[in-house]
Write a structure and sequence with these properties.
Blueprint (H helix, E strand, L loop, with lengths): L1 E6 L2 H10 L7 E6 L2 H4 L4 E3 L7 H10 L4 E4 L2 H5 L2 H7 L4 E2 L7 H4 L1 H11 L6 E4 L2 H11 L3 E5 L8 E4 L2 H13 L10 E5 L4 E10 L2 E4 L4 E2 L2 E3 L3 E4 L4 E4 L6 H21 L5 E11 L2 E8 L6 H5 L7 H9 L12 E9 L11 E2 L10 E5 L2 E3 L6 E3 L3 E9 L2 H12 L7 E2 L6 H6 L1
Parallel strand pairs: 1-2, 1-4, 2-3, 4-5
Antiparallel strand pairs: 6-9, 7-8, 7-9, 10-11, 10-16, 12-15, 13-14, 15-18, 16-17, 18-23, 18-24, 19-22, 20-23, 21-22
Length: 425
Amino acid sequence: MNILVVGGGGREHALAWKLAQSDHITEVIIAPGSDAAAQMMDCRVEEIQADDHEGLVQLALEEEIELAVIGPEQPLTEGLADKMKEAGIPVFGPSKAAARLEGSKQFAKELMQKYGIPTAASGYFTNLEEAKEYVREQGTPIVIKADGLAAGKGVTVAADEEEAFKALELILSEEAFGEAGSSVVIEECLTGEEVSYMALVNGNTVVPLLPAQDHKRAFEGDKGPNTGGMGAYSPVPHIDEEILRRAEEEILWPAAEAMVKEGTPFTGVLYAGLMITEDGPKVIEFNARFGDPEAQVVLPLMESDLVDVLLQVLDGKTPDIKWSGESCAGVVVASEGYPGSYEKGIPFTMPMTRSDEKQQFFHAGTKVNSEKVGWLTTGGRVMLLSSQAPTLEEALRMTYEVLDSKEWDGLFYRKDIGHRLLKTE
């Protein structure tokens, strides 16, 4: 069968890599894809952008696509899944109405409050002075979020009023995030361990995946601005099974059921960003797709055929997913300056150290350097190296052994991914 993966980042590279391993596959087509994805066996890149919905639908019809998997949040919130379904193309991804779980933090908050899903107390504002007054009343630390999509950069954990007010002004007055910042959600600052818990969902069918832990801050010690993610690992050994059971029963299932009751059933990946507080797991945010970089460390651990798994979920069945029992750690190499301004077109070569079959580079912002050997950067997050091993410590060691084997001029990576785990042991 022919499968279409929509998107061109590291998450989509990982999805195409995993889907291409299926015995069912004739070809995986990736649009717009990347030069790195084009180099994989049984994969073909078509340079159609993720916002060209008509072009993607036409491509799917021409190529007789039997399953479309939509990676990024933007085309989901803009209704690409709806257009695919209207054209008769099976698609794994939520409708525009269901994708509001990620596209509008206000919508997600109101849904959680209505159905008793545990989350942080919050307020919603469009007026700057009213928002500031709410911060004064609640006190700090406090969390400021642009309501809409901001590529993982619209969140500020403000330690004091000055930082909170600056974040509010950036969103509401300076319009740093465009339409995504026309309104703001202000939340209490939850404390505890942060965990990403994703599930494959189709209406009332909910199939949890392995948990992962992401590192959002740009610099070592969890300092610096929030990014789309600087590294991740899975599973999360210091989060016990009881907590995961509660997260499944109190959050994942109720959220899926709530969407059905609201008349907007969810199909796709329901991503719950959780804080494990003293009172148990609470939702920080919902996403409507695979996490990035979480997908790059969860998918390598799946021994089941991903095509089989997705088709069963779309058929309303609950697949028995087989996992390797190992750990996977991934570290992001990023352009200096990210998540702020950064230079594009930085030349680099891949490490000479040979990675074994349990190590994969997933490219997020690269293209082949046509003038010289190697690659050029095209984005802030350049690529991620994931490694599998019997233990997380070994997976991290393998990853850093490769990354540390060369100089990365103009690029950087965090040297302490996994430090939360290591501190607990």
